[in-house]
Amino acid sequence: MFHSAQNDNLRIYTRGLRNSFILSKFFYQVFLKIPSRFLLNLYLLVCSLFKVDLTENNTRRGDMNTQILWLLIKRINRKLNISLLLSLLAFGSPAIAKYIPPQTQKPASDYTKSAGARGCPEEQISLTILSPTTYVGHTASGHPTFVWFLYSPHNTEFRLFEFEPNGEPKQLGAPISLQAFSGINKYSLPENQPGLAMQKKYLWQVSISCPPNGTLVRRAEFMVVEMSSDIKTNLSKITNSSQKADIYAKQGLWYEALQEALNLAPKGELGQVGSTLVESLTQSEEQGQFKEPELQQRIKNLKAIANRAK
User: Rounded mean pLDDT of 26-33?
Assistant: First the structure.
C-alpha cells in the first residue's frame, strides 16, 4: 500500500514536471515569433492567470511552475527591451536627409538675381529663400510648397511667374498678400486650383517692405518634373516624414523634401531634418562660380539659418 502510494505520487510529480517542461518549451518556441506589441499583453495575462508573485526573490524559493514562468517572463522582458532598442534605432532618430541636386542641373537665369534693398535695418539675417537659386530646382508636384526665412515679422507679397517660349517670365494671377512671421514661412499653391504644367519652368518671388530702404525682393526658379514609378512605389510603403524627406532629397526633389522635413518641426522652425537639408543646399550653391556679393551673403544666411535649428 505504502509503495503504491509512493508510486502514484511519483507518477503525478513526473507528469506535472513533464507538462511544465512542455509548456515552457512551447512558450519559448512561440514567443520568438510573437510581434512585440503583443508581448506586454502576454506578460500581463500570465501574471493574471497564475496569480503568483513573479519577483525574482520569490522565485528562488517558489515552486517549479513559478520558476519556469519567471524564466519565460525574463525572456519576454529581454525581447521587449531589444524590440524597444531596435524601434528607437529605426524610428526614433530622423533619417539623414542630404539633398543631392538634379543630375540634369540647369543654371538659373538672370531673373533670379536679388532686387531692391539689400536688407532690413538691424536684422542679422535678411529675407532668404529656402530653395535653389543658382540653378533650376525640381519638384514633382503641381501644387508645390514654397519656403523662406524672415528674421522679424513682415507683410509679405508672393508672386508666381511662368516662363514663356521666348524666355520672358509671365505673371500668373494676382499677387498674394501674406501675414508672415519671424522664422520659417511657407506658402502652398491651393489644391482647388489648376496645377502647374509638367516640364515647364517657373519663377516664384517673395518681397517685403523695409523702410526706409525700400522693398526687398528674392526669387528662385524651378521646374515640374515627373517622378519615376519606382520612387512612387517606395513612397507608398512609407509613412515616416523623415524617411520620405530622405528619398525626395536623394532624387533632387528639393521642394518635396523640405515640405516633409517641416512636417517634423514646430511651426516657424526648421527642425533637425530641415537643417540638414539646408546645409546640403548651401554646399550645392557654393559649388557654383559666384562673385556677386548678394550670393555670398545668401550663403552666409543659409548657414546661419541651418545653425539656428541645432
Answer: 44
